[in-house]
């Protein structure tokens, strides 16, 4: 991640959108696969757009490769990484692969449980990926993940409630004060609300060495802003996803900050009233959300034949001719490959947000960010702790855990 | 018993009593199994607790973890576990003890009171009530936790709807965040968040019926003429309770109360499934924390040390318990 | 049960008793009715608190409103506004996110329940007998060892059990990642409990019976088999029942150890419904599933209720 810059990001997205209409003539990846694969996913149990899309992709694979059997196991997202890490660290051969955001990419690579580097395993597919997705799949310059789609949060709004989306944090606050209902995720707060630190501090919570600098760069103003939003009485901080998404779907909320995984269900519920806009900019900078690819991770314990099959399947799945167009059309995924087309306005909105996003670092130090800053967020929002103190405590705890 | 028979018996008894071979035969199956899957893992756990055992040490044939002496114990007792911001050992222990005591006391009082109620003379529909009151016993705690989590739901929970009806508000008029509210309902006793009371209500619902069953059994063993004797002496209801009922209940209820205390002290499902230890880890119990250390944090060494600490705490409780029940004494003594 | 001593027939009262006495009788009767009304009110109130969650869950499970995706109740409806058995169908067909039916999950849970129950009671009663009736060196020491282990909850042994069971590999079979492995982990805690609980009960069985049998020429083993075992049935029933419930509802071992969906258990599916990211499980399916999971336990309990309550003289009150 360190090697690539915002310019790279912008360029990548330009390429992505530009190539969206040209079709690829390359031979489809994964031709003639046979055998059996166990894959773990965390797309929710039936009913969700992502889960349905995954089912459709597997059905397509079964038709295309009659001698390939795929056993898909659904694991709750909260336990996906720990279960995979436990299984593979214990020497388990199952699952062959799993698909997830790159939350644990660096960590799992350092544990030695991921098959890789994958840089030279991509064959003719290598050129089909966007630069941004390749960059997000690397740890220390080497690929350990086959990227499937890009993810970041952005701002959804309901056109029947909000006429003009807020461009700045002040606009958002003013809207909330005037009575517009807004939803913010309190669960996974550290991920959903990363943008607010950048908007109020002009930079991320940690420097290039992984040292937390949030206590000195004004990040606490971000938390103070969140508190101000809450104090309007019109901004709800949700502790669970279904209620959060449900309230937006039923029109109880005018604005939510949510990722592309919500697109499919939101479109079904709100149809033409659904719109998207970039996350508001703050006094010190744009509200950059974390961006990262979802992708396939392959079990290092498996036999070479299984690893090869897993790579083949992953490359087929992420290709437009394989599974990715289904994910793009049905679940609002932003494909990691250039030839899958994105026509939908919401997905295009996410592509715009992607140009204003912060690629998730894969260094070890970020590991101590999650729980400590979630705690800071919760303390300020729920307990009314002083934002400056909460930020300092979280920063100190993070640096202590990292011996910095 | 005639004298010769008694002599035969005494002779036989001595022979059997001294015969350790018979004992060995009876003990062997259980102790062979326990040696492998109970005692050895516990000793292994003690070894693990002095190492920095991580998930990378799980693989068969992987390098041994580093020996770090009391490193894990120091981390646990000085609240220095990275990744768990709200971890506070003494608070968890204090909450856990309070949780167990408060539950058992309420269970006992309600259990005895309701047993007495059902024992009232000429009570109509007695057997119907008995059948109804035993129902919570038959529902597994994990199910109770999953269901009561919904009952205490902030937005759609039955409890808030009920409060709304009682306070004459429309549905949704009451939205108390029973399981997540970080406030202190009792200002001078900040150990207990609102979710404690939700857990308590659930566990009281779950717990008193069995106490009542045990108390009923004890009540029925009280000879009625004792009460009549008190009546003749002019004693009232309170005297009867104090002089006869209580002394008869005590030996029956005491072992059960101790059993209930240990069960409640280690009650995993309610805390884990209803509140997930929240808010801010304040309803975390030692058991749920132990599980989180292994499952979520994957800190096997720290988790092992944590279990050893738990073991010591429970051992102290066991020794107290043991004095109370004299469970190690056997009938032949 | 005490009515005979109370029911002094009214006719026995001599005729001479005047109006005053009749009035007193009436007052007494009224007081009796008042007392009964008060008792009934209290009993009914308690019955309502006991029944409320059960009726409520049934109501939620039977509700199936197609316009309300999450099926969250909109108010306190004990009678479902859109009654349907739909949720039960869904809970049976595919309760978790995986293509595993309720039957498969239940069969796995059943395997855990039965093995935990049988092994702990079978081996436990033998050891309990030795502890209760035989004198041998180390008896106190071994009993204290059992008691000490028993106090440590099963969750606290999960780390070493994981590591040790994981080290047993036969070909592709990994003991940790299997139903027998989870069963062993459960027995690890259930067996000491069974020994303790059964010993407490055996202590209450009068020894004279055995002595009589011994005098009649029974061997020690025969006395155990023909005298002690039948008398210990209530305790065996309750220990077996508790072992069954422990296996049937085990969550932490199964969730930590198992990775193949065909091995998944009921509790694991339940966790998928109520876990941290709460998934998209509609409330009616969750409620229907909860009812289905508790049903077998409830039925077993109610069938063996008499024995189970008798056997619950935990720790054995020595009489």
What report would you give on this structure?
- The complex is a heterotrimer of chains A (404), B (333) and C (319).
- Chain A has 404 residues and is α/β, with parallel strands linked by helices.
- Chain A has 2 domains: 6-151 and 292-347, D-Maltodextrin-Binding Protein, domain 2 (3-Layer(aba) Sandwich); 154-288 and 363-401, D-Maltodextrin-Binding Protein, domain 2, CATH 3.40.190.
- Chain A is 43% helix and 16% strand.
- In chain A, strands 1, 2, 3, 6, 12, 13 and 14 form a 7-stranded mixed sheet that branches. A 5-stranded mixed sheet of chain A has the order 9-8-10-7-11.
- In chain A, helix 9 (220-231) packs across helix 16 (387-401), helix 12 packs across helix 13 (320-331) and helix 15 (369-383) packs antiparallel against helix 16 (387-401).
- Chain B has a domain at 81-298: MetI-like fold.
- In chain B, helix 2 (20-49) crosses helix 13, helix 3 crosses helix 13 and helix 6 packs parallel to helix 11.
- Chain B is globular, with a radius of gyration of 26 Å.
- By secondary structure, chain C is mostly helical.
- Chain C folds into 2 domains: 16-90, no CATH class; 100-311, MetI-like fold (Orthogonal Bundle), CATH 1.10.3720.
- Chain C has a two-stranded antiparallel sheet with strand order 1-2.
- The longest helix of chain C is centred in the first third of the chain and has 44 residues, at 19-62.
What is this structure, in a nutshell?
Chain A is α/β, with parallel strands linked by helices and 404 residues long. In chain A, 43% of the residues lie in helices and 16% in strands.
Main features:
heterotrimer; A: 404 residues; D-Maltodextrin-Binding Protein, domain 2; five-stranded mixed β-sheet; disordered N terminus; B: 333 residues; 0% strand
Give me the oligomer status. Answer: heterotrimer
CATH class of the largest domain in chain A, named Alpha Beta
How would you describe the shape of chain C?
Answer: flat
Query: Order of helices and strands of chain C, N to C?
Result: HHHHHHEEHHHHHHHH
Give the mean pLDDT of chain A: 87
The end-to-end span of chain A amounts to 21 Å
**CATH architect. name of the largest domain in chain A:** 3-Layer(aba) Sandwich
- The CATH superfamily of the largest domain in chain A turns out to be Periplasmic binding protein-like II
Helix content of chain C: 55-70%
Give start-end ranges of low-pLDDT stretches of chain C.
Answer: 1-9, 314-319
The helix content of chain A is 40-55%
Number of domains of chain A: 2
CATH topology title of the largest domain in chain A: D-Maltodextrin-Binding Protein, domain 2
